[in-house]
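Would you mind writing out the residues of a protein together with its fold in token form for me to study?
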Amino acid sequence: MEVLEIKAYRRKVGKGWAKKYRKEGKIPAILYGHHLEESIPLAIDRKEFQKLFKKGKYEPEAYILKINIEDGVESKVENALLQDFQIDPLTDSIIHADFHAVKMDELVDTHIPILLVGDAIGIKKGGVLQHGISEIYIRALPADIPTHIEVDISSLDIGDSILVGDIKVSEKIKILTPLNEVVVSILAPQRGEIEAETKVEGEITT
């Protein structure tokens, strides 16, 4: 997992402060972790936060964040994962972020997106792709957390499925999601779809 360095400032909390920070082009945030004595309220420059964007697509799972926290004359550095964020439904802009502080030598539990690759045999036969879960829960050291898990569906025929237990991962990663969870299935086409295709083929033949 790529390490990305960003700056943050310890912010004031209380009524009106969050709104003030947003007007100044900053995003209110919170940093928490079991090794911290207490959660740290942060303000991150919006431009700094833009570093988490890649080609217009949001990819928070692609980074371990090395956060340089300035607090007056003092400063400290914490490694963290972006745990969650809130979006204003009216402006579609990020208005708050939660960071989970981690130690590089301690295991972390986190969700990783699943990326389907390949063209399933069953789809070429008219089958329908049905998605199951879109991410898996894993445990690993921060540096060993992948940006995503690839699942090859090329060999799937109609009626076939891939379960979490079928996914191959590094020995450094432990999957915490139940192994019987369905990742993807290829379903038989609906009867109406088959009849429609047959009718079209008949019209072409005549």
